[in-house]
Amino acid sequence: xxxxxxxxxxxxxxxxxxxxxxxDANIHAIQRAAVLLADSFKAGGKVLSCGQRRFPLRRYxxxxxxxxxxx
Length: 71
What we know:
Blueprint: H1 3-21, H2 24-42, H3 56-69
Keywords: Isomerase
Protein name: Phosphoheptose isomerase
EC number: 5.3.1.28
């Protein structure tokens, strides 16, 4: 019933990711952001994450994962 919709959404996501990966500047930007985040945590700082209210559990899970990975 929804298989075509699901397949189309996943194909669109795959195409978007493939296009994103074609530009090395995107990978560099992610690396730079990761370094900035790590430096903030090492200096005792914190990072505030804001976004759409649609995915609060994803943000919570991300924060919990970061908390567990800190020394």
